[in-house]
């Protein structure tokens, strides 16, 4: 291979490597910008006025309409359907595994909303034992945020219909409840609730509601972007050094 051909091969390789690294760095910055816009949208939604049970029906007309209301606060009044309490297994809160407690709430107008009421630690000595969660028979007021249905975890068996489950099949759960449950769930928040006209602290049911904060991992994208830009700079530096500066210094040394 001639030195001239080798020169152009190295030059082309270096140029392509720089372009690729720069493009990957720019892509990481774009991903960071998209996630920042997502976080801002969630914060904006959370700051909007509270919705109420009368708004629930209008949010169920389509998935698009439902998605526009995600993360908004909503205040509902109704009664718990205690016969349909479900414990979702292998859910963590504060890095501790346990259950998410899921309970349908029948609103005063007859509609049913699935409420993610909170988290409770399981008994690791008796894994089939269901925790004792206080569930009032009276009318309650629940404050929460509109959320997607509970996330799905990998499971070998998706047909389990006991109280302890790995996942909640949304359509099948509606059949169990015997009523449509809409397109969204509600993640309950800690606040004083009214039961039979008497204020009761929401944490009296023994559930934790320290729901994970949204982590867009912006620092990760910025870190990757810096690495890609640094790699492009390194390739350019090595190319200039070994293809231009070093040969000239060698040539000058022998002249």
Structure explained in plain terms:
This protein is an alpha/beta fold. The chain has two domains: 3-42 and 217-254; 50-205. Helices cover 39% and strands 24% of the residues. The protein is built from five helices and ten strands. The strands form two sheets. A five-stranded mixed β-barrel has the order 2-4-5-8-6. Strands 9-10 form a two-stranded antiparallel sheet. A hairpin with a 2-residue loop joins strand 9 and strand 10. It is elongated, with a radius of gyration of 28 Å.
Topology of helices and strands:
Elements lengths: L2 H44 L4 E2 H4 L6 H6 L4 E8 L5 E8 L2 E12 L4 E10 L18 E8 L16 E2 L4 H8 L7 E4 L4 E3 L2 E3 L17 H37 L1
Parallel strand pairs: 1-2, 3-7, 5-8
Antiparallel strand pairs: 2-4, 2-6, 3-4, 4-5, 6-8, 9-10
Helix pairs in contact: 1-5
Cα end-to-end separation = 26 Å
Globally, the shape reads elongated
Number of domains: 2
Helix share bin: 25-40%
Task: Give the overall pLDDT as a whole number.
Answer: 85
Largest sheet: 5 strands, mixed, barrel
Q: What is the strand tally? A: 10
Radius of gyration: 28 Å
- The run of helices and strands is HEHHEEEEEEHEEEH
Please give the count of helices: 5
Poorly predicted ranges (pLDDT <50, ≥5 residues)? 192-201
| Sheet with the most strands: spatial strand order | 2-4-5-8-6
> Which class do the helix and strand fractions yield?
alpha/beta
Q: Assess the beta-strand content as a share of residues.
A: 15-25%
């Amino acid at each position: 291979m001639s030195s001239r051909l080798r020169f152009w091969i190295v030059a082309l390789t270096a140029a392509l490597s720089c372009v690729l690294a720069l493009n990957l760095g720019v892509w990481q910055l774009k991903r960071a910008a998209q996630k920042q816009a997502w976080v801002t949208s969630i914060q904006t939604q959370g700051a909007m006025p509270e919705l109420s049970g009368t708004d629930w029906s209008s949010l169920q007309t389509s998935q698009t309409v439902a998605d526009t209301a995600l993360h908004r606060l909503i205040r509902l009044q109704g009664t718990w359907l205690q016969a349909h309490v479900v414990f979702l297994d292998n859910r963590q809160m504060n890095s501790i595994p346990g259950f998410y407690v899921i309970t349908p709430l029948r609103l005063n107008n007859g509609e049913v909303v699935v409420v993610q009421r909170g988290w409770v630690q399981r008994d690791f000595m008796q894994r089939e034992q269901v925790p004792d969660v206080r569930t009032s028979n009276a009318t309650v007021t629940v404050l929460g945020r509109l959320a997607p249905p509970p996330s799905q975890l990998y499971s070998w068996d998706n047909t389990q219909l006991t109280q302890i489950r790995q996942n909640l099949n949304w359509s099948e759960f509606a059949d169990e409840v015997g009523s449509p449950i809409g397109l969204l769930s509600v993640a309950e928040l800690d606040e004083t609730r009214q039961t039979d006209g008497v204020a009761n602290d929401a944490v009296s049911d023994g559930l934790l509601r320290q729901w994970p904060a949204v982590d867009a991992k912006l620092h990760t994208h910025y870190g990757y972007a810096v690495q890609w830009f640094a790699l492009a700079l390194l390739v350019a530096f090595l190319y200039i050094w070994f293809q231009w500066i070093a040969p000239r210094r060698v040539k000058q040394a022998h002249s």
